[in-house]
Amino acid sequence: MSAMTKQEIAEANRRRYEDLRAAGQGAAPKALPAATALDGAPIAPGAVMGEETVPPGWYHTVRLGSGEALRIVDTSGRSSVSVIGWCEKDMSERLNCADTAKIQWSAALSKGRVILTDMGHVFLSLIEDSSGAHDLLVGGSTPASVLAAYGEPARNTRDNFLAAASKLGLGLRDIPPSVTFFAPVSLDAEGCFGWNADRKRAGDFVDLRAEMDLVLVLSNCAHPLDPARPADGGPVTAVRHRAPLPGPDDPCRTMSPEIARAFAFTDRLHA
Amino acid sequence: MPEQNAPIPDPADAVYSHDVPAERPWSRLLKRGQTLRIVDIEGQQAVDALLYGAENPAERYSAQDTLRVQGSAYIGLGTRLISNEGRVMARITADSCGRHDTSAGCCSCESNAVRFGAPARYQNACRENFLLELSRYGLAKRDIVANLNFFMNVPIEPSGDFTVVDGISAPGNHVDVTMEMDVIFVLSNCPQINNPCNGFNPTPVRVHVWDPPAA
Predict the structure, then answer these.
(1) Comparing C-alpha atoms, which of B213, B104, B84, B93 is closest to residue B154?
(2) How far, in Å, CA of A229 to CA of A233, rounded?
(3) Do B111 and A190 touch (CB under 8 A)?
C-alpha cells in the first residue's frame, strides 16, 4: 500500500472531523435524557453521607471518592453556585471548562453531560439535573465585578476560591475557570451574553457523580450577570451521597464516542 | 466612537521580528507600551496564546474575566485582555481578521486521544509546546489556564452548539496586541491536524514587536 499524501491525510482528517461533528451535534447515537423532575430523584436515606448548608456569599470544600455524588440544591431559586475542583491524586489535574465544551461539541450542560479535566479524564457526571441552565463561559464574581454591580465591596467567588485553595496548600496559580450551576446565561447570534431569570426555580438541583477521587470548592455567590443584589441570595444545600452504580447503558458513560473514550482512559486510573 | 485599527507601523521599524515555524512555540518578555503583531502568513492558522505578569506570574490572563468584562464571547478589535486580578494586561489594537476565540482552550495529547482516537495521543499539541516554553520561566502545568486562540473560529450558537470551524483568516491577516503591563507573552503555533483550526495543514506565522511611538 502506498503512503498517503499530505493532501489525502488532510482530506481523511476532515472527513473524520465532520463525521464526529454530525454524531456529536445532530445524529447523536442517543438523545440526551430529559431534565429530572424536581421530585424525580429522591436520595435513599441510607445513601446520605453528609450534608452542609452554605449561606449566601460563602464557600464549601468537599472531598468525593470515585462513585460518590454531590447533590447541590438551589433551595430558594435565587442562588448560583460556582464550582472548581482538583484530582486528589494530582492537584495539577483539574476541572477544565474549555475541554468540557469542545469535546462535547456544546457549551450547554444538562443531565447526561460530563465535566472533563485537562488530562482527558472524566471529572464529574451530571447524573441528575432539574435545571439545565448552567454557565461554562463567564465564570464567577470577582472583587471588581461586585464593586461595579453594588457600589461597595462584597463577598465574591474569586476570593472564596482563593481562600479555599489556600486552605488546601494551593494558591492563585491553581484556580481554573469555573462552571456555575443555576446560572441561565444565554448567548445571542452576535455572541453577547444575557441572563434568563425565568429559567430559575426554587428547589432546582444537580447530582454530580465523581469519576475519580477529587476535591471540589463550591461558591454560593450571585453570578456576575445576575442583576439581583447579594442580599437577595439564599442558602444552598450540598448533600454527599452514594450514587447508584452506573449500568452498561449509563447515559453519561455512553453519550458519545468521545466520552466513551474519556471514560475508558479514566477507568484506567482505577485499574 | 467605533474602535479604529491602529495605524500600521513599518516592519522595518520593529525592534524584533521572527518567523515561528509551523507547530512550534515562541515567547518573549514584552514591556508596557510595546505592541506585538502576529501575522497569519498563509491564512487559517490558529495561534494559541498565554500572558503572565512579568513582575508576578501568578497574575495571568483570564479568559472568563475577559469575557465577563466585555459582555460577549469573542475576541476582536478593542478587547481588553483581563488578568485574574482584574487588571488590563493588554488590548487588541488592530485586527484584520475579525474573529478570535478564548473559550476552546488548547489542544493536548490527552484531549486529542479522547476526541480523535488513541493514536492521536502521539501527535504534537499546544499543551506540549506550552509546557516546554513555560519551563523557561519557572512555570509549569499548573500555570496553563484557558488561553487565547488567535485566528481560530469557534462560533457558539444560542443552543450552546460549540464548534471549531474553518478559519476566516486570510493570508497576511494580522492582530496587534499592545501591552498595558510588562508581560511574558507565550505562543504555540498550533500543530493540530485533526480539526479545521489550521486548515488541516499547520503553517508558519510571523511576529513583530514595536516600541511605543515617541511622544
Answers:
(1) B104
(2) 7
(3) no
User: What distance in Å separates residue B34's CA from the closest CA in chain A?
Assistant: 26
| Strand pairing report for A68-74 and A204-210 | antiparallel
How far is CA A156 from each of CA A137, A147, A182, A223, A251, rounded to the nearest angstrom?
Answer: 17, 10, 16, 9, 34
pLDDT tens readout for residues B149-177: 999 999 999 999 999 999 899 999 999 99
Q: Contact at 8 Å (CB) between A147 and A230? A: no
Q: How far is CA B136 from CA B8, B129, B205, in A?
A: 32, 12, 21
The per-residue pLDDT for range B77-123, each reduced to its tens digit, is 999 999 999 999 999 999 999 999 999 999 999 999 999 999 999 99
Whether residue B1 has pLDDT greater than 50: no
H helix count then E strand count, chain A: 5, 13
Whole-Å CA distances, B85 to B66, B102, B123: 11, 18, 35
Residues of B in contact with A190 (CB under 8 A): 72
Q: Are A140 and A59 in contact (CB under 8 A)?
A: no
Q: Which residues of B touch A25 (CB under 8 A)?
A: 161, 163
Q: Per residue in A145-175, pLDDT tens?
A: 999 999 999 999 999 999 999 999 999 999 9
Distance from the B145 Cα atom to the nearest Cα atom in chain A, whole angstroms:
6
The whole model's pTM is what? 0.95
Name the CA radius of gyration of chain A, rounded.
19
Chain A interface test: which of B23, B68, B87 (most A C-beta within 10 Å): B68
Strand partners, B156: B162
Choose among B18, B16, B27, B17: nearest CA to B129.
B27
Rounded CA gap, B196 and B190, in Å?
11
pLDDT at A217 exceeding the cut of 80: yes
Give B111's contacts in chain A (Cβ within 8 Å).
99, 102-103, 116, 120
Q: Is the pLDDT of residue A249 over 80?
A: yes
CA distance A82 to A226: 13
8 Å CB contact between B214 and B68? no
Crossing angle, helix B109-116 and helix A257-270, to 10 degrees?
Answer: 130
Q: Could you write out the DSSP letters of every residue in B72-88?
A: BS-B-TT-EEEBTTS-E
* Domain extent listing, chain B: 24-196
Residues of A in Cβ contact (< 8 Å) with B119: none
